[in-house]
Amino acid sequence: MPDLTVRARAGLVPVEVELERKGTSRLQAILTMYQRWIAEREIGGVAYVCGSDAPAERVRDLAAQVGIPPGGLRIERLSVVHEEAQCGQGRSAARSAGAGGA
Question: What CATH number should be reported for the domain holding residue 17?
Fold first, then answer.
């Protein structure tokens, strides 16, 4: 099971947070499952959030090996996701303050 599933324009997108190294066979099995789901149009793609460049490259390489299409995989660094979430919280708080003052 993914760590999170989001609904996007492309359809359901499972999100995996890859902070600890998984064994190669386990990660390859997970990516193969996602490749099959993408091919069967059960999901629109898969997203990985990685703590550093090394696991991101590993996921990218294994995803290519199992046949996940280039548009079917998105990889983000955890630091970028965290930064975007911080910015989003600021915008959300500003909207809430503006709505409360109306």
Answer: 3.40.50
Choose the weakest-confidence range: 16-20, 58-62, 87-91: 87-91
How many domains is the chain partitioned into structurally? 1
Q: Give the domain extent around 80.
A: 4-100
Cα 38 to its chain centre, rounded Å, is 14
Burial class (CB in 10 A: 0-12, 13-18, 19+), 94: exposed
Rg of the chain on CA atoms, in Å: 16
Mean pLDDT of 84-97: 66
Per-residue pLDDT band at 63 (split at 50, 70, 90):
very high
How does strand 11-18 pair with strand 73-77? unpaired
Q: Is 28 a residue whose pLDDT tops 80?
A: yes
CA angle, 74 as apex, 68 and 77 as ends, to 5°? 135
